[in-house]
Amino acid sequence: MSATGATRDLPGIYHKAGSLSSERRWALWTAYISLIFAAIIFLAPPVYMFITSLKTSAEVANLQGNPWLVRNPTLENYTAILTNPTFLTFFWNSAKITVMVVLITMVISTLAAFALARMRFWGSQALATGVFLTYLIPETLLFIPLYQIVGGLGLLNSSWGLVVVYPTLTVPFCTWIMIGYFASIPKELDEAALIDGASWSQMLLKIFIPVAMPGIIAATIFAFTVSWAAFVYPTAFVTTPDEMPLTIGVVSQLVRADTFAWGQIMAGALLAALPPVIVYAFLMDYYIAGLTAGATKG
User: Fold this and answer.
1) CB burial string 39-65: b at 16+ within 10 A, e below
2) How far apart are CA 129 and CA 249, in angstroms?
3) 136 and 225 in contact (C-beta within 8 Å)?
4) Which of its termini does the chain have fewer beta carbons within 10 Å around, N or C?
């Protein structure tokens, strides 16, 4: 091409570059506006809860003025909650249930995922899909038969009944996540380990668990969140305050007939939500990586 022809093409090149730059600018503006709109929607409830938790009962009951403003901020709601032995009992019950469920879930899910991903047998693929499909069944359809099962075991009105029930929510999804991670590990590692005389348990402990640690962390975070925040099952299975977790204890004990202690309810709800927020704040990258890899490799 001659120099004259090349010079003639420059305006077209500049026009395309300018068009791409304009499209990119509009795309960025659209993304920012969407993110800001979503942030406002999702942050408005917790911000309003925090504002309400700083108000006295009289200020909450006063309908005059802007409800988003605090005239006389106070921490008495948090003090009342944190010094209430009943609230501490709720917290201990939630912690106990969550730790036990996470341990049970991770043991069952890890072994099941390893078997379904690496120990190929007849029907393993269909079974793996079935495990995930069970997670899609709404818990509102399951709590009635589970109520009969828990009652038959004599665990109604006990936090240990929730330890038995919660894995039905956590095990299927956690197993699915780890199946994707275990299936992505090269088969050459299996063959090399078997040639060297390693057993299946040694392969799991020394090869698969270390390599699949992001997926295991993601599954652990999911099990923790579900166990800590569950509401339907404890509402159906537990009615005694001494056995209630935080999710239902705060509401049930701070609502008397038609009297709502809104300040303490909001303070208790924020304190109950704090552990999952802390976990996600420090482990969000692992959780996203685990969910992404489990979904794409599974």
Assistant:
1) eeeeeeeeeebeebbbbbeebbeeeee
2) 36
3) no
4) N
